[in-house]
Amino acid sequence: MKYTIVAMIAILGTTTLFAANDAEKIFDNKCNMCHIKTRPQHHSNLVAPPIMGVLYHVKQAYSNKKDAVAFIVDYVREPSKSKALCMPQKIKHFGLMPSQKANISKEDLQKVASWLYDTYPPANFKHKGMRH
Q1: Using an 8 Å Cβ cutoff, are 62 and 68 in contact?
Q2: What is the C-alpha to C-alpha distance for residues 129 and 90, in angstroms, rounded to an integer?
Q3: Long-range contacts of the stretch 108-111 (C-beta < 8 A, 24+)
Q4: What are 30-74's pLDDT values in tens digits?
Q5: Any residues with CB less than 8 A from the CB of 37 and at least 6 apart, and which?
Q6: What are the CA-CA distances from residue 107 to residues 68, 83, 131 (Å)?
Q7: What angle do CA 132, 86, 58 make, to 5 degrees?
Q8: Model-level pTM?
């Protein structure tokens, strides 16, 4: 019995790790070309807000993971100014995010959104906004 429990915990931990790695790979292939995962050294070459800043605003608006993931999935598939959580000057600077409905499946987007919620922003993150 003891070994069964240990084996189950190991399997669940491995499954969670693979799911996180899978979600990060999806993000890297579908999202990272616009939303970088690190704090930018130069803001002038950004094409979209860094993902840590995006998740900072998502978590301010949605205190639980289920609602935050639902928001991310909805927004990425059907973005609009009325749904946007970023500061208005971000939309003015970057433009409204184009719909990604044709570029990522809803299932993959849910994986990515869950991983993003669990990963960003990092514990030491301090929101500074965009400098011009």
Answers
A1: yes
A2: 9
A3: 108/26, 108/30, 109/72, 109/73, 109/76, 109/77, 110/69, 110/73, 111/19, 111/22, 111/23, 111/26
A4: 999 999 999 888 888 899 999 999 999 999 999 999 999 999 999
A5: 27, 50, 51, 52, 120
A6: 15, 21, 35
A7: 135
A8: 0.80
Domain with residues 2-119, CATH architecture: Orthogonal Bundle (1.10)
Residue 121 burial (CB < 10 Å; 0-12/13-18/19+)? buried
Q: Where are the chain's structural domains?
A: 2-119
Locate 42 and state its tokens. 């130069």
Helices (H), ranges, the chain: 2-30, 51-61, 65-77, 88-94, 106-119
